[in-house]
Amino acid sequence: MSDSVVIPAFPVPLRRLNAPEPCEADGYDRLVVGAAAGTDLFVDPADGARRDTAPALVGGLDGDFRVSALVRAGMSAAFDAAVLLVYASPDAWAKLCLESSPQGRPTIVSVVNRGVSDDCTSFAVDPRSEDVRLRVSRLGSAYAFHARVGEGPWELIRYFALCESAEVGFSVQSPTGSGATARFEEIAYSAERLADVRDGS
C-alpha cells in the first residue's frame, strides 16, 4: 500500500493518517475514504480523554488557499461524519463535518482543538439534500470554515487561528457506529485569498 494518495484536483500528494480503508482516488476530483467502527478525533474538554483514531488523508499547502468539496457520507449511527480537516499535530487541529446528530439528522458541526476540543453544532441539513459542500480557507495563520447547501450562500461556520504550517485534507469517523464511508466529490483548490470571511466570497 502506498504511503500517499494523489488526485489531480489537489496540488500535493495526500499522506495517510490511521490508514483509511477503503481509500480510493476516483478520477480527477473525487476521493472515497472509509473508517472502521469506533473511530474518532476528539479530546473531551471535561476529562481530557483523547480519541485520535479517525482515518484521514492530509497534505501541506503553502500560502493562502481555499479547499472545498461536495460531501456525501453513509451516516447510519450518531456522529458518523465526513470531514474537512486542518491538522498541525495531535494537540492542534480543526475539523468541519457533515455529521449525523443523535437525532439522526445530517448536521454541520465544527471542532477546534488546542489541547482539548471546542465543539460547536451550527445547523441541521434537510435529509433530502444531496448537495452539501464544505470549505476550508487559510488567511495567513487564520482559517475559516464555510458550508453551503444547494444554491444557497456560503455560511460562515468558524473563523479561528491555529497554525500556518498545518496540513489540510479529508477524514471520516464513526465513533458510535460500525464504520462509515465518505465520498468527497468536485474537490477544488484555489490559491486565491478569501476576500470576505463573513459573506464567504
Figure out the total of helices.
0
Supply the CATH architecture. Answer: Sandwich
Order of helices and strands: EEEEEEEEEEEEEEEEE
Helix content: under 10%
**CATH class membership:** Mainly Beta
User: How many domains is the backbone divided into?
Assistant: 1
Q: Trace the largest sheet across and list its strands.
A: 1-2-7-16-9-10-11-12
Pfam families: DUF1349
Organism: Streptomonospora salina
Protein name: Regulation of enolase protein 1 (Concanavalin A-like superfamily)
Short recap of the structure:
It holds the Pfam family DUF1349. With 201 residues, the protein is mainly β.
Descriptive notes:
This is Regulation of enolase protein 1 (Concanavalin A-like superfamily). Pfam families: DUF1349. It comes from Streptomonospora salina. The protein contains no helices and 17 strands. By secondary structure, the chain is mainly beta. It has one domain (4-190): Jelly Rolls (Sandwich), CATH 2.60.120. Strands 1-2-7-16-9-10-11-12 form an eight-stranded antiparallel sheet, with no helix packed on it. A seven-stranded antiparallel sheet has the order 3-4-17-8-13-14-15, with no helix packed on it. Strands 5-6 form a two-stranded antiparallel sheet. The chain is globular, with a radius of gyration of 15 Å.
